[in-house]
Write a structure and sequence with these properties.
globular; three-stranded antiparallel sheet; single chain; 4 helices; alpha+beta; six-stranded antiparallel sheet
């Protein structure tokens, strides 16, 4: 299976590859990763990134590396995440560097990923699992039209998170270009 490539006005979302390792490892070892279980040691960071690549091979979909159209620079990971022990299909997002936050990149990429999940993967509903202290991700989920679902199952009951639910009708129903 060839992984789809999503395009938006400013971004290209493609399957992660070895060229993204330096940026991803730096993120997973930094304080920016605190809401996704980090910061990690080099080994744990490597395994986290390898898991992103492996998710594609096991599930046939996964988080895309988000790159800037004009430079090709990798700025983050956005997209589906559904490990074997996750109760629901999730759309997650993370930006590698503080400098890329606040430009709408995560929202632009997440909208494309949500459209893909609803249209191409036929998901009736999608969640985003968010750490309670992650105000930027909460704001993004709400900007995307998601609502807090207090009754949703938790991926890690010993470490509760907020579950924001996206509904198919929150999106415009017209997926970005899938290549």
């Amino acid at each position: 299976m060839t992984a789809p490539i999503l395009t938006t006005d400013r971004l290209i979302l493609r399957k992660p590859n070895a060229q993204d390792a330096d940026a991803a490892l730096a993120f997973f070892q930094s304080d920016r990763s605190r809401y996704v279980g980090g910061p990690h040691s080099l080994g744990a960071a490597w395994r986290s990134f390898a898991g992103e690549i492996g998710h594609w091979d096991i599930r046939g979909y996964g988080m895309w590396t988000v790159t800037l159209k004009d430079t090709g620079r990798a700025i983050g990971l956005v997209g589906p995440w559904h490990p074997a022990d996750w109760p629901e299909f999730e759309i997650g997002w993370l930006l590698f560097d503080d400098a890329d936050q606040g430009h709408g990149f995560a929202a632009e990429a997440a909208r494309a990923a949500l459209d893909y999940a609803f249209v191409a993967l036929n998901q009736p509903t999608v969640v985003s699992y968010i750490a309670p202290a992650n105000s930027a991700s909460i704001a993004l989920a709400e900007r995307l039209g998601a609502t807090l679902d207090k009754d949703a199952a938790q991926p890690h009951p010993d470490k509760p998170c907020l579950v924001y639910r996206h509904a198919a009708d929150d999106n415009d129903g017209s997926p970005e270009a899938y290549a």
